[in-house]
Amino acid sequence: MPSRPRLRDLGLAIGTLPAGTHNAITDVPGVRVGHVTLIDGEGPLEPGVGPIRTGVTAVLPHEGDIFRDKVAAWVHRLNGFGEVTNAEQVREMGVIETPILLTGTQNVPRVADAFLDWAFARDPELGVTTWGPGPVVAECSDQYLSDVRGRHVRAEHVRAALEGAAGGPVAEGGVGGGTGMACCEFKGGIGTSSRLLPPDAGGFSLGVLVMSNFGRREHLLIDGVPVGRALRDWRPPASASDPARLGSSIIIVLATDAPLDPRQLERLCVRAGAGLARAGGLYSTSSGDFVIAFSTTNRTAHNPTGPVQSHGAIAESPLAGQAWPAQPPINYSFQAAVEATEEAILNSLFAAETMVGRDDHVRHALPTDLVLEIMRQHNRLGPNRP
């Protein structure tokens, strides 16, 4: 687990909805996360050899056979300079039938291939009496810190991430697929957060996991405070690195046990984009910004037992008998998506430690003490927080 404290450990909080037990995507029942982190070598880049600062993260929507028991899903493109494999199939069919895998850009084909080997070994009927699964692999570039020509994520790493996935607390920062990532010119990577909906919205849970690799320092916002501008001259000065190599992408994975259908999940994805904007994301050109959302309780059997399958959908209008202007239950899911996305991004920053990579490139950890002083000046700490 990370040695650096998370946002809430420091007295900071985002929004008004309560977080779940672990404040993680794994607060959605059945969701599991696994990481494999690859760190090796130092000094000058030797293309195809190292130094290595990469990895893979697996998000499993439930504890059963995801191919045989698919989850309602959507993939939403905020900005398309990137890849989510089989995104069109997810949008066409409205389901995800595999775990979601996050990694560095050049690792994508090897990760997808390794997943297929793993899936075929587990189910001998795949590709024989039924179609083969369409792996969902999403990426950001870790080229600034890692040798990407070596495509160092191998089959054994993918298998270990899948088979080691677990519930409970989730490691954050420079781990798994987030190992070589940066956020707002600081070290970034994996971050997660969750929200609980009130009883009159069903009492459901919603969790977000991000792989953050976007942004410029001066745009960083924390709970509405322009922290990035206040840190512009902190060492090294903002944008001192090669601008062409600044991270500019993010993958947002959103899980909920609310019974949302694919159309509603698309609406939820749009609100996750608002959470990204609240942290300072601009959807910059040459940036790959994608949201992958799924509902763990809206399932589709691979082999249905009858000609009609029924699915629930959360209410989108105020409930009968509620006095105007009562909130439609889905609005709380929208709020949860915004708040959890923003906090997950910030957790990816707060948890990450300074990392030195290829050619002695450095991504510094967010200077927490300075950030806390800035937040204190804006009354964002303690009981006086607005």
Strand content: 15-25%
Can you tell me the CATH superfamily?
L-amino peptidase D-ALA esterase/amidase
What is the CA–CA distance across the termini? Answer: 31 Å
> In this structure, how is the largest beta sheet organized?
6 strands, mixed
SS-based class:
alpha+beta
Write down the CATH class: Alpha Beta
Morphology call:
globular
The CATH architecture term is 4-Layer Sandwich
CATH topology: L-amino peptidase D-ALA esterase/amidase
Helix proportion range: 10-25%
- Give, in spatial order, the strands making up the sheet with the most strands: 4-3-12-11-10-9
Please tell me about this protein's structure.
By secondary structure, this protein is an alpha+beta fold. The chain has a single domain, classed as 4-Layer Sandwich (L-amino peptidase D-ALA esterase/amidase). 22% of the residues lie in helices and 23% in strands. A 6-stranded mixed β-sheet has the order 4-3-12-11-10-9, with helices on both faces. Strand 7 and strand 8 form a beta hairpin. It starts with 31 loop residues before the first strand and ends in a 9-residue tail after the last helix. The model has no long low-confidence stretch (mean pLDDT 93).
